[in-house]
Structure formats: C-alpha cells, structure tokens
Amino acid sequence: MNLTVIGTGYVGLVTGTCFAEMGNRVTCVDVDAAKVNRLKQGEIPIYEPGLDTLVLSNFKAGRLQFTTSLAEAMADSNVYFIAVGTPPGEDGSADLQYVLAVAREIGRHLQDYAVIVDKSTVPVGTADKVREALANELAKRGVEIPFDVVSNPEFLKEGAAVNDFMRPDRIIIGADSNRALETMRSLYADFSRNHDRILEMGIRDAEMTKYTANAMLATKISFMNEVSTLCDRLGVDVEKVRLGIGSDSRIGYSFIYPGCGYGGSCFPKDVKALIHMAEKNGIDPLILQSVDRRNEAQKHVLFEKISEHFGGNLTGVTIGVWGLAFKPGTDDMREAPSVVLIQSLIEAGARVLAYDPVAMDVAREELPSAWFELGSLQLASHQYEALQGVDALALVTEWKPFRHPDFTAMKRMMKQAVIFDGRNQYDPKSLKAEGFQYQGIGRR
Q1: Residue-by-residue DSSP string for 260-286
Q2: Is the model's pLDDT at 195 over the cut of 80?
Q3: pLDDT of 243-278, one tens digit each?
Q4: Contacts of 422 by beta carbon, 8 Å cutoff, 6+ apart
Q5: In angstroms, what CA-CA distances link 99 with 29, 107, 136, 339?
Q6: Strands (E), 289-332
Q7: Sheet holding 437-439, edge to edge
Q8: What is the side-by-side order of every strand in the sheet holding 79-82?
Q9: Which of 141, 208, 165 is nearest to 24 (CA)?
Q10: pLDDT range class, residue 90, cuts 50, 70, 90
Q11: CB atoms closer than 10 angstroms to residue 430
C-alpha cells in the first residue's frame, strides 16, 4: 500500500518506518525542512533502539521517503496518518491546532477517496473535528470527494517502540465505515498473523481507550509511590510489599515499582487531558487528580531526602546525578524527574554533576543555559566522572550501566559515600555492608 504519514516525531517516524519494513511504500511529511534533510542523510532526530537501522535500510530500498510537501505525498496515496504533536495547554487540554491544520491541508489537495487516520493522541470527539475541518475545505473548493476518518491510537513504549509496533499486544481501530475498516484490516494484516490482535470499535471508543490505558498505568505507579511514602514513615520495606501484592494475578508486577515519579510525553500529558475532559463534562475526576498530584509530589521526594540528610543546608554541597532521561532506552527529558531534582538542588545552593548514557545532547539544549554558565550544573563525560568529589549520588534513571557499578571505586571517588536511590535499584543491606549510607524510596 502507499501511505502518507504526517509528522516525523516519535510516533510518526516509528509508524512510517515499521509500515515500510512490511513492504509498504511510505512518505513521511514534516514542515521542518532541516529535520527532513537530516532524515534523508540517515540522521535520526530521536533516540530509539533499532530505529536508525530500519530507517536507513528502508530509505535505501526506496520504501521510505521524506518530504516537506504534503501535496506531493498525496499524489500517490489514499491513506493518511496524522501523527503531529498535541501539546498540553495551561489547563491540561490537548492543543489540536496542528492536527486540524493537517486536516485542512488534506482537504485542500484531496482528489480521490481516502482514509484519514488519527494516530496522534487526541481527546474524544477529535475525529468529528477532523471530519468537519476537511469537509469545509472540500466545500470551499466546490467538490464532493468521499473520505473516512479513523482513530488508530498508538501504544508505543519509548525504548521499545519498534518491537511494540511490529509485535503489538493489540491494534485498536475505531471506525464507522466498513470501507475504512477493510482498508485498515488489510494494512495491519501482517502484524496479527499468529492471532488476531485487531480490536474494532467506535471512533470515540478508540479515542477514549488510549487515554484510559495511560491513565490506568499512571494510576498504578502513583498508587505504589504513595504506598512507598507510607512505608518510609512506618519502617516497612516497600520491596517486600511489592513482591507480596504483585504475586496476585489480579494486580501483577507491571508498573508497581515505586520511584521518584513518572515523566515523558504520554502519562503526564494524558492524565491532565483526561482530567480536563472530565471537568469539561461536569465530572469531578477525584482519582485522576490524585494521580497527578501524587506524581508531582513524588518528583520532590529525592530532594527532600537529600536536604534532610544535609541538615537543610546544601550550600557548597556537590551532588552527582545518574540519569537525565525520564526512563531508560530514550533521550526524552520531557517531564523528567531529573529536571525537578536538579532545579531544586541548584536553587538550594548545591552544585550538580550529571551524566546520562544518551540524553546529554538533549540536556544541553533543554536545560537553562544559566545553570551551565554559573557553574551550578556540569555534564560529565562518563558515569564515574559524575562522582568525582561529590558529597552524594542521586540515581534518577535506572539505565543498565548503573545497575552493577564498581562500588569500591565509587567510594574512592566520592567525598562522602552516600547514595540516594530514586529507583530502588540497589540492595540496602549490601550497600550498607560496603560502607555506604543508603536511602531508597520506602526501602529498609
């Protein structure tokens, strides 16, 4: 099939590349000419394991193309995936201006029947707005061209997105047209050969499913984070609690690891958007509001532990930070707990030495330049360089290279052998036996 994917961000690039890998001809469109040129040169603007190899091989094979012209891409396609950003507004609502701008442009150039697929995460009712925006443009041209709008939300984990797309748990298709359904079934047939992973439902059902899935996962995380706070107060080891409840098949072990808060482009934004949708429809979303508040509070837990350890005075204290990305396997720092921690440390008078295996370039671009200029923040070239002369280490992101470090060497490098473990990665007893002062999240 000939497909057009509008937007070469995280979702768009993964979607287009994986469809191309299955033999389709895909044109990815983006208004950012510099990004398009980089992609044509084989440079990937995001870090996602395995994606660079697939982009390069499919581009060389001619199955994957990049352009800034949607009109040019539409000449050979009748399926259009809208995968542009939906950034949150101040009230938490999703900003649909880019989605609707794409819909209008499709309407200005559409010549034959097409399926327009909402791949971006969008609120319930967005498909209706896309349909209206496109229809208005057709009316301005004085033409009647049939089209269908479909909701096909993505469920990609950063760091495992290629595998998630190629071997999906489920493929949700929201449509109100048999013609559109047949097109989508054909497109996804290769992804569900072993057993049928396609779930068909109404468009609004599909839109709601995406938000509900992310909110449910965020709820599990925030619930366990709240339990870890209580464990800290009561002298309980939250790891034992986690193992105890995870063995219940109704609960399971996924997403019940306490830590210093979740981040990224999905959970924070989608929980806030769902809160906004509820309030807009006269519902008081008590659980969702609590999930969001708990997560915001959790991002301050490490700083509070560090501040208390040093008697509330961090002036002249140097803290090493391992991990800047919001999770392993990505360079994404959106809503990352590391940013909250570093800001709090600097405002309290501390100096920070930080290291991340892949997010260093993103950190240089996104963190305030004043932090670097004043010497409050320095990015180390290696994980152990971030420990030279520090008064404590704060582990924020559980990258694999941090799991089994050389603790003997660490003690020699650090001014004080103190570790604040924001991901409960280390065993408290073992570290204390090594001579470290250790604090985790609800650990004993």
Answers
A1: S---SSSHHHHHHHHHHHHHHTT---H
A2: no
A3: 999 999 999 999 999 999 999 989 999 999 999 999
A4: 259, 260, 301, 302, 323, 337, 341, 394, 395, 396, 441
A5: 13, 13, 15, 29
A6: 318-322
A7: 377-379, 351-355, 318-322, 392-395, 418-421, 437-439
A8: 64-67, 25-29, 2-6, 79-82, 114-118, 147-151, 171-174, 198-201
A9: 165
A10: confident
A11: 11
Nearest to 267 by CA among 204, 213, 339, 207: 213
Percent helix / strand / coil, the chain, rounded to 5:
45, 15, 40
> DSSP string of 326-384?
SSTT----TT-HHHHHHHHHHHTT-EEEEE-SS-HHHHHHHS-HHHHHTTSEEE-SSTT
What token pair was written down for 50?
Answer: 């395995």
Provide the token pair at 424. Answer: 């409960």
Residues contacting residue 295 through CB under 8 Å, at least 6 positions apart: 218, 221, 222, 225, 261, 262, 267, 268, 271
Contact predicate 413/384, CB 8 Å:
yes
Amino acid identity for residue 326 in this structure? F
Give tens-digit pLDDT for 211-252.
999 999 999 999 999 999 999 999 999 999 999 999 999 999
Helix (H, G, I), strand (E, B) or coil at 42: coil
- CA separation for the pair 252, 199 (Å, rounded): 23
Q: Please state, in angstroms and as integers, the Cα–Cα distance from residue 275 to each residue in 92, 98, 204, following that order.
A: 8, 22, 17
Whole-number Å distance between alpha carbons of 158 and 184:
24
| Through-space distance between the first and last CA atoms of the chain, rounded to whole angstroms | 57
Q: Is the pLDDT of residue 330 over 90?
A: yes
Residues 325 and 322: their CA atoms lie apart, in Å, by 10
Q: Please say whether the beta carbons of 30 and 8 come within 8 A.
A: yes
266 annotated active-site: yes
Where helices occur in 191-262 by DSSP H, the ranges are 203-234, 238-246
Q: Cα(221)–Cα(19) distance, rounded to whole angstroms?
A: 32
Given a cut of 90, whether residue 92 has pLDDT beyond it is no
Write the CB contacts of 29 (distance below 8 Å, at least 6 apart in sequence).
Answer: 4, 5, 6, 7, 8, 66, 67, 68, 69, 70, 73
Q: How many Cβ atoms are within 10 Å of 195's Cβ, its own excluded?
A: 5
Q: What is the DSSP letter of 85?
A: -
Q: pTM above the 0.85 mark?
A: yes
The DSSP secondary-structure symbol of 110 reads -
Question: Dihedral, CA atoms, 240, 241, 244, 245, nearest 10 degrees?
Answer: -150
Q: Determine which one of 28, 231, 260, 266 is catalytic.
A: 266
- Assess contact for 152 and 120: CB atoms under 8 A: no
Residue 397: closest CA among 354, 429, 364, 433: 354
Residue 17, C-beta contacts closer than 8 angstroms, at least 6 positions apart: 26, 51, 54, 55, 58, 64, 162
